[in-house]
Amino acid sequence: MELELLRSNLSKVRIPEPTNRIYKQECCISFHTPSSEGGLFVDMNTFLAFGKDYVGWNFEKTGNPVYLHIEQTKKPIPEDRPLKKPTLLAIGIDGGFDNQEPEYDETYSIVILPDYATLPFPSVALPEKVRLAVDAILIAEGAERKEQIASWTADKKQVSQHALTLKQIDNGVRIPPSGWKCAKCDKTENLWLNLTDGMILCGRKLWDGSGGNNHAVEHYNETHYPLAVKLGTITSDLEGADVFSYPEDDSVTDPLLAEHLAFFGIDFSSLQKTEMTTAEKELDQNTNFDWNRIQESGQEVEPLFGPGYTGLTNLGNSCYLAATMQVIFSTNSFCSRYYKNQSLKTAFDIAPADPTVDLNMQLTKLAHGLLSGQYSIPAVHNDDVDSSSSAKQEGIRPRMFKAVIAASHPEFSTMRQQDALEFFLHLIDQVERVNAGNPEADPARSFKFGIEERLQCPSGKVAYNKRNDYTLSLNIPLEKATNKKELEEFHKLKAQKEAVGKDISSDEIVRPRVPLSDCLDSFSHPEEVQGFYSTALKARTTAIKTAGLTSFPDYLVLHMRKFVMETGWVPKKLDVYIDVDDVIDISHMRSKGLQPGEELLPEDGGEEESTKLMPNEDIVSQLASMGFNHLHCQKAAINTSNAGVEEAMNWLLSHMDDPDIDAPIHKEAKNEVDPSKVATLVSFGFDEEIARKALKASGGDIEKATDWIFNPSAAADAATSSSVDATLSDGDGKYRLIGLVSHMGTSTQCGHYVAHVYKEGRWVIFNDNKVGVSKNPPKDMAYLYFYERIQS
Q1: pLDDT tens digits, residue range 108-118?
Q2: Active-site residue flag, 752
Q3: Under 8 Å CB-to-CB from 595, ≥6 apart: which residues?
Q4: Contact, 506 vs 465, CB < 8 A?
Q5: Active-site option among 202, 319, 457, 633
Q6: Sign (positive/negative) of CA torsion 659, 663, 665, 667?
Q7: Does residue 114 have a cis bond before it (omega within 30 degrees)?
Q8: pLDDT confidence of residue 224
Q9: Which of 461, 408, 751 is nearest to 605 (CA)?
């Protein structure tokens, strides 16, 4: 009977092809695996996997009745099992580090829904099509595994056959750290340094006309000098440099790159050695202290289990993601949107045919995985001797979420460590995009706030610029340290010990202590802006800039600028403590807008109107040297009023995905409107001139422009009555600290991230899959601070 039923549904069975993605290690809408109760069901038509509680939903949605059922039973691990020698820099995949993961016995069967009719596999009685399909599924590398392996091996490059025998020409060329230009044209981006003769030339011209002018490859055709390195990709970590071999026509590794660069005056080996004998040496001494303090090592941490206390297993340098998401899902906005107000069933029903590529589905899956408590249980070991005080959980693996959030950002798809701030901003941007059709439900809005900058030129007249942001990036004014006397004594002791060849011990090190209030004050503190074009004076001059917030968000994220770039592109981490209060009041930071008696700068600036502020070339060249697009660097400098490299870099990181990021600067002038939006209004039957006027008056918003056309006086009143964007949340300026993301390591691209979250009246540490009560949260050492507005 079951065989007849199977034969009647053979049209629903497909034999997978090599290009098909086959999921067989994890349910696509939950964190169930073949070892979970009830096993895993693989749809033999779509090759998506479902846990026992969810396979019925797939049958209802697709009508696909035939499934391969996979169940795993854990094998006992011999105590004397030898460790395998790794052949790949990876964890949890063949050839990677042996992390003593359990091994399983697997059993298979064919299950036909809706009645769960079951046939054993293997069996010669099964139709050949079914046997071939199952064999192909079992032999194939699972999609989850494929992505993991691809992440580890994507950056693997071959050593160039020309690197070890490269002959360099001593022609006196010395390469400066910035300000480069192609030797044969005016290109200042996509520049390549030929490692033979030191020529700086532009790269290939792309199909759309962008890129370079082919001067680097033409130089190779003339000279046959084989290797070039892309300027802007060179950092103190030379492994990240982009080296290209023209005869091999591929990106390659140059094991002698440090020597080849030193030949032209870029001596990274000596820079690194100098760092190691000075600041790096001291930083090394601090590393163990940082590591122990932030992770609360050496303390008896009481493990926590249940709803909201689920750990995230490290996928390989994914702690930046784990720490950020633990804090994100402790906020009411994200918890409500993806857990309380949206069930897994709802998310699955509205998801596309492949839910693994749907951000809404995978955020909902992650939210339910973290907050339901279903997976927050003590791990069961073979010896079963863990006491309750030392028991830990396995955690859940956010593989599908990482894959979908990384799809639009290639860096996050690798297994390299990433910047938690950059990830947070990318996540918020993606969430805002997928909720664009329903802004009221967008949880990203709870982090969004307005910033208003006031610029006053020597004429006494002022200009106001507004922008929105999601994080408040704060400089750390070391001159405001409260322990200056102790610091002076420490530096004296350090000098004395160095004079006799002794090292400072870690318990003798004294770090500056700077109050958070001083960091907040530095944001609003007046500063000079060079090169400001005054429409009143008709000349470039120095303006005074102050800044304030036009709205106070539900959640305020403070980013401490602990990482600075030193000479020679060497990143340095500021060794500093921030004295943080659990409750802060930023009411004094609210922008007051145009004040009585103030006169705005005239707007009829002629040709200069669109370029009131010219980008500071020093800032632009430094950003470009880090690999950023030159136009993007110019926009970053302009939009941060030439405040500095750090400010411009933070603007860049949060606006990389702006739809107009590649638009020429002159097209962003205030008197320009989007032609497509004009056409839209014209298609509604409005006159083109009226449409343009309405779009100018409404800041380019079509809906507001329509309101303006029907009632321009009311729209004008509304525009002048409030300086706050109506879509921004707002309230009092009192906030309570609810979360920390802390970092250990010399730069954001290495080290380790840990989260601390205030839950149910206590601080909780989330260190990957380890979750427990925090006895001493490192509030003075965090990289990101998350504050929640106190409702009055």
Answers
A1: 999 999 999 99
A2: yes
A3: none
A4: no
A5: 319
A6: negative
A7: yes
A8: 95
A9: 461
